[in-house]
Protein 1
Amino acid sequence: MPHNAEGGHRASVGAQNFKELLLEVSTLFINLPIDSIDEVIEDTQKKICESLGVDLSSLRQWSDRDRNLLTVSHL
């Protein structure tokens, strides 16, 4: 398969942009007031979805009642 320099450049730029997004996201949660966590998680999910070109993401956590059950915490 021939190498496409333009496609390789786009992938490199995309990877760099994603790294920058991860850095931005990780700093958002430092010293975040507890009453802002859900809103910031949802905003962050939206940014990550847009960056990856996907329509939906979900976060899950282990249930407090049943440690064998995952429940959706953010959709």
Protein 2
Amino acid sequence: MPGLLTQVAGTISPMKFTVAVTHEAPWYVARCLDVDVASQGETVDAALANLEEALGLYFEGEELPDSLEPPIITTVLISA
């Protein structure tokens, strides 16, 4: 995902977001882990492109954050 653009000190630089993609047949679902935005597509690339568009709409008219604290990604084990 190329990322959204943010303007810093007169230059434009991309804003990086952490994304998880899962396959929920027949769709691929892309979820942004930094903000609560998700989208889907028939392929991973389509889901990511749709998520990038959704993030653009989410931040439309808003300033992008200066920085994001990366999410903690881990797994948990439960007994069956």
